[in-house]
Design a protein that fits this description.
By secondary structure, this protein is an alpha/beta fold. The protein contains 8 helices and 8 strands, in the order αβαβαββαβαβαβαβα. It is globular and about 45 Å long. The two termini are 23 Å apart. Bound molecules: pyridoxal-5'-phosphate.
Length: 231
C-alpha cells in the first residue's frame, strides 16, 4: 500500500468513527507523524492531502526543513522538547503540541517575543501519570492552563495527550474521555470557548480517541509503515 492509499483508508476509518459518534468528520484533522521517514515520504503525504505533519526530533526536523519536506502542509512539533532547543523550533512550526511544563512554556514565550510573534501551542497532559512521560499532571491542568494565559507571546489552542501503552483493546478510552472533559472545561471556563485542537489518538487507537472527542489524531506507522529503529 502506498502512503496515499494508507491516508485514504485512514480517512475512511476516521469518517466512520466520527459518524458512529454523531460527529462531523470534517472537524477532525489527520496529522502524519513522520519521524524516521525521509523528505520524499513527507512530500508524498502532503501530495495526498495530509492536514499537517508532526515531527519529534529537532535535528531531524531541521534537516528535513532544509529539504523542503513539508512545503504545502502545516508543520507541528509533537515530541519532547528540551529547553535548549526551543530556539530551533519557535517560529519554524505552526503548532508546538507538546508543551508539558511551565518552564518550557516560559522559554517558548521568551523566544517568540524575541521574534516578535505569537506561537501557537497545545498543553500536554500526562494523563497516565507516568514517570517516563512529560506533560502536566491532570490534577494541575486547570491551574496550569490558567497560568498559561498570562504569557503574551504564546497562544494556547487546546490540549494534547499520549496515554500509556494499551494493555487491552479500548484500554485508553477512559483516559481519552478524561482529557476530553478537561478540554471542554478549560476551554469554556478559561479560554472563552476558543480551544480548537484536542490532539489524541495514534495508529492503534485513533478511533477510540475520535469517539471520545479528539479533533486531531496523530498517525505514524499506519501511514508510513513500521519504523526501522535499528538504523
Ligand atoms: C510517533 C508518534 C505518533 C504516531 O505513532 P504511531 O503509533 O506510529 O501512529 C503520535 N504521537 C507522537 C507524539 C509520536 O511520537
Amino acid at each position: 500500500m502506498s502512503i496515499a492509499e494508507n491516508i485514504q483508508s485512514i480517512r475512511e476509518r476516521m469518517a466512520r468513527a466520527a459518524e458512529a459518534a454523531g460527529r462531523d468528520p470534517r472537524e477532525i484533522l489527520l496529522v502524519g507523524a513522520s519521524k524516521m521517514n525521509d523528505a520524499a515520504a513527507c512530500r508524498a503525504a502532503v501530495a495526498a492531502g495530509i492536514d499537517a505533519l508532526g515531527e519529534n526530533r529537532v535535528q531531524e526536523m531541521t534537516a528535513k526543513l532544509a529539504e523542503d519536506a513539508y512545503t504545502g502542509a502545516p508543520l507541528h512539533f509533537i515530541g519532547h522538547l528540551q529547553r535548549n532547543k526551543v530556539r530551533q523550533v519557535v517560529g519554524k512550526v505552526d503548532l508546538i503540541q507538546s508543551v508539558g511544563s511551565m518552564e518550557l512554556l516560559s522559554e517558548i514565550d521568551k523566544q517568540a517575543e524575541k521574534l516578535g510573534i505569537v506561537q501557537d501551542i497545545l498543553l500536554e497532559v500526562n494523563i497516565g501519570g507516568e514517570e517516563s512521560k512529560s506533560g502536566f499532571p491532570p490534577e494541575e491542568m486547570y491551574e496550569s492552563a490558567e497560568k498559561a494565559r498570562t504569557f503574551p507571546h504564546v497562544r494556547v489552542r487546546g490540549l494534547m495527550t499520549i496515554p500509556p501503552i494499551e494493555e487491552e483493546p479500548h484500554g485508553n478510552l477512559h483516559y481519552f474521555a478524561k482529557v476530553a472533559q478537561l478540554y471542554v472545561d478549560i476551554s469554556r471556563n478559561l479560554y472563552d470557548n476558543s480551544f480548537v485542537y484536542l490532539s489524541m489518538g495514534m495508529s492503534d487507537d485513533f478511533e477510540d480517541a475520535i469517539a471520545a472527542g479528539a479533533t486531531m489524531v496523530r498517525v505514524g506507522s499506519a501511514i508510513f509503515g513500521h519504523r526501522q529503529y535499528q538504523q
